[in-house]
From TrEMBL, chain A:
Keyword Oxidoreductase: yes
Keywords: FAD, Flavoprotein, Oxidoreductase
Organism: Sphingomonas colocasiae
Acyl-CoA dehydrogenase/oxidase C-terminal domain segment(s): 225-351
A Pfam cross-reference name: Acyl-CoA_dh_1
Domain Acyl-CoA oxidase/dehydrogenase middle positions: 121-208
Protein name as annotated: Acyl-CoA dehydrogenase family protein
Annotated TM spans: none
UniProtKB/TrEMBL annotation, chain B:
Ranges where the Acyl-CoA dehydrogenase/oxidase C-terminal domain occurs: 231-379
Domain Acyl-CoA oxidase/dehydrogenase middle, chain residue ranges per copy: 116-214
Gene3D superfamilies for this protein: Butyryl-CoA Dehydrogenase, subunit A, domain 2, Butyryl-CoA Dehydrogenase, subunit A, domain 3
PANTHER family: MEDIUM-CHAIN SPECIFIC ACYL-COA DEHYDROGENASE, MITOCHONDRIAL, MEDIUM-CHAIN SPECIFIC ACYL-COA DEHYDROGENASE, MITOCHONDRIAL-RELATED
Cross-referenced InterPro entries: Acyl-CoA_dehydrogenase, Acyl-CoA_Oxase/DH_mid-dom, Acyl-CoA_Oxase/DH_mid-dom_sf, AcylCo_DH-like_C, AcylCo_DH/oxidase_C, AcylCoA_DH/oxidase_NM_dom_sf
Calcium found in the keyword field: no
Keywords (A to Z) from UniProt: FAD, Flavoprotein, Oxidoreductase
Cofactor names: FAD
Protein name: Acyl-CoA dehydrogenase
Protein family: Belongs to the acyl-CoA dehydrogenase family.
């Protein structure tokens, strides 16, 4: 029965996250961008909100609730949204697909009161790469596997305790849990255009020896597409939040700014761009909810996830672009968050696999 | 709880609409060719087309167990589309205005008639404040006397008449209020205009009429003023979106089938860089379709929540119409381009869909008008944005 009604619990989650985002994230976003890191106080606040830990409960965890969270967080700071999304994605993958032993080990690490992250390492430092065809390879050895390859755009690379590495095994994508301190693992910070707070990095796996139980799901292997689908929906939700931030900033700005005798917002080109921002954020939201609903109900979500991700990617860039344009030079300078959002929009819409729901 | 599944009853009704559409598709080319000069010369309405059940009658008779009556209606239109064009004939817009705002006496007199909606004039389309048709009360006879010209009136030449919007006499401040009247075809002073030739939607008859000292009795004057008449658009705009989405669905299915026949299958798992150009473009068009589907369903869901007469879903209705109107243009243009020159041939319906659906971003408020409405609401503006 078609319904857009949130549960009471979801309404509470949404308003709580909206508050955290407004009070704790927005004011810090520029600093995170300049520092190239998210403040530990912010991360701990998020950790204590219990979002990441909640992903360990297969029964109660809800992709629909998760997209609400990511939208709200990204409206404040997209880097924080993706930090949460990345850590959540790791926990979700282990919860959903890990063997009993794997679940026991990794989910125990969630018990502390400081932010503790595992992240997914999927993208590779290669132009025109496709996340579904990794060049990183795992070969079978006598008592386990050896992993070789390079991963890039890994969120919280320096802070992660574990990586879930997407790699080719016997010609198909599979996933392996790799300890960040294992021999042969080297991590290099690689700042990028946007999402600078996220601490993106490159991780090199040089003949890393893995035990048999490093393979997610052990004997059966992992359903990597499920991880990618969840991440596409998560990224769409983050793009939604960022789009909303631009829209909410541009409304008062263009109403106050007087150019050629009238407020900018009264000029039709600007007003229509603003109308488009509202229309497109609505559209992205319902596509994201629908894809999350498909994940939640166990339907095949690959198509809906791809469509939501693709659409959000096109529109968030357009929204940030028009937002920047309507601020003129003020959109280009660091005094306003717009130039950061513009960089973040391009980055968010090109990443893959970094924010599970 | 957020839910995008259809109920069993939704599915039954959608299946009915799909079946009608399938049959209508067989007649679509004939309808397009034979109705160039106006109304179809042969009967196409549903019992003749399908020989089955009229899906909209089925909905009206039993909407128990649907997601809601208005949601089911939109779902059905998305599944049947303009080729069947079933609903337009049965849900005359003017009749809906009469049904909602007429008195019992007026309904008794006009309720059995099919009434078009007569708003547009040669000098007044997007801007109804330019409407110059007028009415004058004749105290001697108790009649109203109407003068003016209406154009682009759907189905006027095949319906019984129209509910038409005209200016009344000036008040103390010199403002001329809007009034609505029932005007009947063939009535003295109502001039006939031949059906208008057009690029697409040819089975959808379009005409106009002139009014020269048309005398109508007092009972012909409805209580629907400007705002009331236009409030009906909130219900209808997402349905215009739904019809456009139906046609776009046909276009997308056709494109996907033809690509697959040439060995190009669509893989939704791959990343963008791994796709062929044709695959990538089709995926983007499908995404656009899904975007329009979402805002249309949301507008209808919100209508269900706040009630049809409420104004509280007007922005969502505009959003749905604006996104779907633009999507319809982009999807049909792009699909032809993906398929290449063979798609232009009249041997297929694709070129017809391209022509038909273009109107979606114009009538019932062009895309620009929807954006004015959305932006006004967001910015707290009224006349300062126009
Ligand atoms: C097939 C068909 C069926 C129709 N059925 C009916 C019917 O049943 N009853 C009826 O009353 N009318 C009907 N119409 C008329 C229809 O509603 C009008 O054509 C429509 O409202 C646009 O008006 P217009 O054609 O006069 O264009 P104009 O008002 O001249 O507008 C032209 C273009 O200018 C742009 N524009 C307009 N206003 C603005 C603005 N404020 N800001 C920026 N851009 C703007 C838009 O792009 C618009 O398309 C029908 C038309 C067609 C073609």
């Amino acid at each position: 029965m078609i319904s857009f009604e949130l549960t009471e619990e979801q309404e509470i989650i949404r308003s709580t996250m909206r508050e955290i985002s407004r009070d704790a994230l927005s004011p810090e976003a520029r600093r995170h961008d300049l520092d190239g890191a998210i403040g530990t106080a912010v991360l701990d606040t998020i950790w204590q909100a219990g979002i990441v830990q909640a992903q360990a409960d297969r029964e109660s965890r809800s992709p629909v609730s998760n997209v609400l969270v990511l939208e709200e967080l990204a409206a404040g700071d997209a880097s924080v949204a993706l930090a949460v999304g990345a850590a959540s994605g790791f926990v979700q993958a282990v919860t959903d697909q890990g063997s009993e032993a794997q679940r026991a080990v990794f989910l125990a690490s969630l018990e502390g009161d400081r932010f503790a992250a595992g992240t997914i390492a999927a993208m590779e430092p290669d132009f025109v790469g496709d996340v579904t065809r990794p060049a990183t390879r795992v070969l079978r050895s006598e008592d386990g596997f050896t992993l070789s390859g390079r991963k890039t755009m890994v969120p919280l690379a320096a802070q992660s305790t574990h990586f879930l590495v997407i790699a080719d095994l016997d010609g198909a994508s599979d996933a392996f849990i790799v300890d960040a301190s294992a021999t042969g693992v080297t991590i290099e910070a690689r700042q990028a255009l946007g999402l600078r707070g996220l601490g993106l990095g490159e991780v090199n796996f040089d003949g890393v020896v893995l035990p048999t139980d490093a393979r997610l799901g052990e004997g059966n292997g992992a359903d990597v597409q499920r991880i990618i689908d969840g991440a596409r929906v998560g990224l769409a939700a983050a793009m939604l939040g960022l789009s909303r931030a631009v829209m909410e900033h541009i409304i008062p700005y263009t109403k106050e700014r007087v150019v050629h005798g009238s407020p900018l917002a009264q000029k039709q080109k600007i007003a229509f761009d603003i109308a488009d921002m509202r229309m497109e954020t609505d559209a992205i939201r319902w596509m994201t909810w629908k894809a999350a609903w498909a994940l939640e109900t166990g339907l095949d979500a690959t198509r809906l996830a791809q469509l939501a991700y693709t659409y959000a990617g096109e529109r968030v860039m357009q929204i940030a672009d028009n937002g920047l344009q309507s601020m003129g030079g003020h959109g280009f300078v660091e005094e306003h968050p717009m130039e950061m959002w513009y960089r973040n929009a391009r980055s968010l819409s090109m990443l893959e696999s970094v924010a599970g729901v | 709880m957020v839910d995008f599944s259809l109920t069993r009853r939704d599915e039954e009704l959608v299946a009915l609409a799909e079946r009608e559409n399938k049959i209508a598709l067989k007649h679509a080319r004939a309808a397009d060719v034979h109705s160039i000069d106006g109304a179809l010369p042969f009967a196409l309405p549903h019992p003749d087309v399908a020989g089955l059940q009229d899906p909209f009658e089925a909905l009206a008779n039993d909407h128990e167990g649907t997601s809601s009556e208005v949601i089911a209606e939109a779902l059905m239109m998305i599944s049947s589309a303009a080729d069947a064009d079933l609903r337009d004939r049965d849900h005359a817009f003017g009749s809906l205005v009469l049904e909602e705002f007429g008195t019992d006496e007026q309904k008794a007199k006009y309720g059995h008639l099919k009434l078009a909606i007569g708003l547009t004039e040669p000098g007044a389309g997007s801007d109804p404040s330019m409407i110059r048709s007028n009415s004058r009360y004749d105290a001697e006879t108790g009649d109203y006397v109407l003068n003016g010209e209406k154009t682009f009136i759907s189905f006027f030449n095949i319906y019984d008449g129209a509910v038409t919007l005209v200016r009344g006499e000036p008040d103390e401040k010199g403002n001329r209020p809007f009034h609505t009247f029932v005007v009947l075809r063939g009535q003295e002073g109502v001039g006939k205009v031949p059906s208008i030739r057009k690029m697409g939607m040819r089975q959808h008859d379009l005409a106009g009429f002139s009014m020269q000292d048309v005398r109508v009795p007092e009972i012909a004057k409805l209580s629907a003023d400007f705002a009331k008449t236009f409030s009906k658009f909130n219900h209808n705009r997402p349905l215009v979106a739904a019809v456009a989405l139906g046609t776009c669905r046909s276009m997308l299915d056709f494109t996907r089938e033809r690509l697959e026949a040439r060995g190009i299958s669509i893989d939704y798992a791959k990343g963008a860089a791994g796709r062929s150009a044709a695959e990538d473009r089709l995926i983007r068009m499908e995404a656009l379709w899904e975007a329009a589907w979402g805002v249309t369903m949301y507008a209808k869901w919100k209508q269900t929540q706040v009630g049809t007469p409420s104004y509280d879903y007007r922005t969502e209705a505009s959003i749905s119409k604006a996104i779907a109107g633009k999507a319809a243009r982009t999807i049909t243009q792009t699909c032809l381009d993906i398929l290449g020159p063979e798609a232009l041939s009249e041997h297929y319906l694709a070129e017809k869909w391209f022509r038909d659906v273009r109107i979606a971003d114009i009538y019932e408020g062009a895309g620009e008008i929807q954006r004015v409405l959305v932006a006004r609401e967001m910015l707290g503006y009224k006349r300062e944005l126009n």
